[in-house]
Amino acid sequence: MHEKERHRIILSAVQEKPVVTVPELVDLTDSSEATIRRDIAALHVQKKLRRVRGGAEALHPPQFVGLAGRPFTVNETLNTRQKQAIAREAVALCEDGDPIIINGGTTTFQMVHFLTNRRMQVFTNSFNIAEHLLKHSKNTIMLSGGTIYREQNIVLSPFDNDVTRNFYARRMFMGAQGLGPLGLMEADPLLIQAEQKLIDQADELVVLVDSTKFRKRSSLILCGLKRIATVITDSGIEDRDAAMLEEAGVSLIVANVQAGAKTENASASA
């Protein structure tokens, strides 16, 4: 990752929470600790943040604390071809008329390109997904209510009496921070609370994760493997991870990334 991009991510991160640690920034940027420490030192000298022991803080701490995890604008640039191929397989599971939930995320966002000619009832907590489908499809869109989290481009509500409880879905499509033997993992308690409500409204849970997510971990478990009906990933999945899903009774779909690239090229030429 280029230095300017790392600096942008670091400055964004310190505006989201009072103090950001070096390990957190290493995870956000996929850089080494030495690189992050140099970046923090440089930004400190430039008076763009304040260096503190073990991390950095904003010169003017935020009044509103955001969610843990990478911003949407950073995540959407990672493993793009894999995400597009995975999203194409997810939409292939749907039939016109189906009520579905699409949880906000960069992999699930790629579904919008394949939903253009569909007619379904879509419930989402993502402004990006709702806006694109409203402009470029004839699907019926319902958007959840709550607090807007700009960095992740999602709307979350901690309350039980929101519109979520009034929507039934045949399937819910979602990504995750990580996926392992204990199940789906997320980075923020509020995400866990809001997403568990959505999961309760769907018959089937379909998880969209590129193969790198099998190597990522978080301290927060969203749900166990037994709750997941299907996992869609790319061919980078290791045999041990495929075996883990099979043992838990989870269906596995491996997306053809090359086919996704051909689709993308065809769309660009049209």
Q: State the helicity in percent bands.
A: 25-40%
Uncertain regions spanning at least 5 consecutive residues:
260-270
Q: What count of helical segments does DSSP give?
A: 10
Q: Radius of gyration from the CA trace?
A: 19 Å
- For the secondary structure, the number of strands is 15
Strand content: 15-25%
Strand and helix order? HEHHEEHHEHEHEEEEEEHEEEHEH
Cα-to-Cα separation, first versus last residue: 31 Å
Across the major sheet, the strand order is 6-5-4-9-12-14-15
**What gross morphology would you assign?**
globular
SS-based class: alpha/beta
Main beta sheet = 7 strands, parallel
Averaged pLDDT, please? 84
Structure description:
- 37% of the residues lie in helices and 23% in strands.
- The chain has 270 residues and is an alpha/beta fold.
- The strands form 4 sheets. It has a 7-stranded parallel β-sheet with strand order 6-5-4-9-12-14-15, sandwiched between helices. The protein has a 3-stranded antiparallel β-sheet with strand order 1-3-2.
- A hairpin with a 2-residue loop joins strand 2 (50-52) and strand 3.
- Helix 1 crosses helix 3 and helix 5 packs across helix 10 (257-269).
- Residues 260-270 have low confidence and may be disordered.
